[in-house]
Amino acid sequence: MDRRPCRSTRIDVSPPPPSPFLSASCGARSLGHVLFPNADTWSSVCIECWSRKLMASETGVTLRGRRSSAKSMNEDSPRSSEGTDDVYVRSVSNGKIDAEYVINRKLQLKQKAEQMKTDLLKQFDFQFNHFVDNLIDESTSLDSVSPFLSSSVNKELTALAHRQARAPPEKGKHFISRRSLLDELFQVNHIRTIYHMFIALLILFIVSTLVMDFIDEGRLVLDFDLLVYAFGKFPIVISTWLCMFLSTLLIPYGLFLQWAFGYYASKHKVLRMVFFGALFLLFQIVGLWAAPVYTVIHFRLPPASRFIVILEQVRLMMKAHSFIRENFSRVMSNKEKNSDVQIPQFSHYLYFLFAPTLIYRDSYPRNPTIRWSYVATKFAQVLGCLFYAYYIFVRLCIPLFRNISKEPFSLKVLVLCIFNSILPGVLVLFLAFFAFLHCWLNAFAEMLQFADRMFYKDWWNSTSFANYYRTWNVVVHDWLYYYAYKDFLWLFTHRFRAAAMLSVFTVSAVVHEYVLAICFGFFYPVLFCLFMCFGMAFNFVLHDRRKGPVWNVVMWTSLFLGQGMLVCLYSQEWYAQQHCPLTNPSFLDLVKPRSWTCRLHT
């Protein structure tokens, strides 16, 4: 603060009015620090600016107080000298107190400014990352078109480019270093409180289960029989997975090497391509599809063990297809016959099989270090979600569906069953999303130093089912977009976009129903019908033009009802299969739902 001599008490030392130039200067310096976080000069100058402004204000107030005190002492001069001395001492003490107060206020202001700087940087970083992510997603989803001289010439060039070769890998998905959305949101206390609420609900489930078991059994029951049954015969699961993984690691890579090395020297390129393509397709059908399905059915694996085998089967099939598809385009786009064929390294393919993505690249953005505490936390959260699902089934599902097959069927029973199943269905949906898409994938990404953590987007803010399908599971959506939707458009030169979208829905619905049919041990196409009928209709009706909170409410209501229907109908069919087994079922008995006729046998 500038120290200038004060020659008279008549000098006006009151603080000047807030100058717009001073405020604009501070604002510009703050904005400069946000835009350039490495320039610490901006923040120091801005803090000094604000501090000097407050010091001027506080000093003016102090000096005005002293001047008014001196004036009152002059007016009260007839009073005794004792009173005068007392006023003088109080004035001096007040002066000391005011100086200390100004210093403390300056220190507090600096602390508040530093805290405000930190908060502004965090908020700007989050908003900027979100903006860049959306910009990259929108830009990569656009088809790259050459600059046109006229509309007719542009259409001909685009059609010719699509006929000649598929899009090279570099025009596909772009991987960048970014964190998962929930990791960002959990830094906000309000969002973290919602996470704490779910933990509190888990504690209540545990306490209620223990109390009910103690009342019924007279002791605490801690055997977790449902979990033990669901994950039974685990050694068979491990051995099956090892066989699938090793075959996926060796056979597709070996077939691609044999095809690529002799492709340019071969005189029958088409015949060679068909031969090796048929071998790869045979491996996909026999090695990765038929063998695991036979193992699951032959050894009668329980549901959770079946889910592990079948989901790993689907994942490895999708990864093998991505590896062949991306490298096939690379070899075909190489027009120089004498040049060396770019063969991916074996280590790259091995890394890809473990990486939390279904799109093959030779390299991905990597983090410099591994946070093992973060990995342990994510695996602990996965384990917690398993116990959460256990208590949901024990407290909310088993008591509801255990004896439902013995009750007479009516519309009232069905409607009550669906609405009573909404709560466990939604909780299971949240747990599946959090345990797999957030915790499991982030744990493996951290161990592999995989930097692109956008496994999902803000699907909970969707106002349309089209946006929900794109943001719920980004990992699977990217594979369907590039290898089902884009390749379909490549085959038909962008003429049948509706048919391409229908093919994507059909593939997704068939795979989902296949997984449930194998894992549950019966065919009941509830999910297929909901996916193909209501999901397809909602995709066109509730499209991206629907904005506003009302459509988000519509989306959540439909999602809740769908989860209630899935839990209710599949649970009824599961218990009907247990209560009404068939000795020699025909093909019609295997296709027809048992829950429709089980009450006739009881």
From TrEMBL:
Q: What is the catalytic activity of this protein?
A: cholesterol + hexadecanoyl-CoA = cholesteryl hexadecanoate + CoA; (11Z)-octadecenoyl-CoA + cholesterol = cholesteryl (11Z)-octadecenoate + CoA; octadecanoyl-CoA + cholesterol = cholesteryl octadecanoate + CoA; (7Z)-octadecenoyl-CoA + cholesterol = cholesteryl (7Z)-octadecenoate + CoA
Q: Name one GO molecular function term.
A: cholesterol O-acyltransferase activity
Q: Name one GO cellular component term.
A: endoplasmic reticulum membrane
Q: Where are the transmembrane segments?
A: 194-215, 235-261, 273-297, 379-401, 413-437, 488-507, 514-538, 550-570
- Localization, UniProt: Endoplasmic reticulum membrane
The GO biological-process annotations, alphabetized, read as: cholesterol efflux; cholesterol metabolic process
- Pfam family of the protein (one): MBOAT
Q: Which UniProt keywords apply?
A: Acyltransferase, Disulfide bond, Endoplasmic reticulum, Membrane, Phosphoprotein, Transferase, Transmembrane, Transmembrane helix
Q: PANTHER family this protein is in? A: STEROL O-ACYLTRANSFERASE (PTHR10408), STEROL O-ACYLTRANSFERASE 1 (PTHR10408:SF6)
Give the protein's recorded name: O-acyltransferase
Q: Which organism is it from?
A: Chiloscyllium punctatum (Brownbanded bambooshark)
Q: Give the classification, highest ranks.
A: Eukaryota, Metazoa, Chordata, Craniata, Vertebrata
